[in-house]
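[Discussion] Sanity-checking designs against the backbone

I'm trying to build intuition for which residues belong where. Below is a structure token string of 145 positions. I'd appreciate it if someone posts a full sequence so I can compare it with mine line by line.
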């Protein structure tokens, strides 16, 4: 079971490295008419969004107080954390503050997750539109492009 847990993300990573190369190679062509281009864009955006979210959500191994003080040289404010505890339990946007002015989640994580989600939604919409146009063309008896 552990083998599968390690194999699947590794295989997904390798698939996405290859997909990035293929995405850039197809940019000179009419990529918006190719469903596989959109599947690749969907896969890469989901992978990068998940990786960015995990980077922001998973702490560095220490508890929050130790991370703030030892790694980031920031004062840990337990009163602030207890007053805003519901903010740290949300899935998005990620936040893990030491005090009122310092967040352990890097500033690039939330915009990256949002952008990757938007690209994934755009890819699904494009795939749906391509599927509908190809199905309607097939019903009319037109040759597939």
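Best answer:
Here's mine. Compare freely.
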């Amino acid at each position: 079971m552990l083998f599968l847990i390690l194999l699947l993300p590794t295989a997904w990573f390798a698939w996405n490295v290859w997909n990035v190369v293929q995405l850039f190679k197809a940019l000179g062509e009419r990529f918006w008419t190719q469903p596989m281009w959109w599947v690749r864009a969907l896969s890469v955006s989901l992978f990068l969004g998940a990786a960015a979210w995990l980077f922001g959500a998973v702490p560095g191994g220490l508890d929050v107080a130790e991370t703030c003080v030892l790694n980031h040289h920031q004062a840990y404010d337990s009163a602030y954390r207890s007053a805003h505890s519901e903010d740290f339990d949300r899935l998005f946007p990620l936040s893990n503050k030491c005090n009122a002015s310092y967040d352990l989640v890097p500033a690039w994580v939330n915009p990256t997750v949002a952008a990757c989600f938007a690209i994934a939604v755009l890819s699904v919409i494009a795939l749906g539109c391509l599927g509908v146009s190809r199905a309607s063309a097939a019903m009319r008896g037109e040759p597939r492009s």
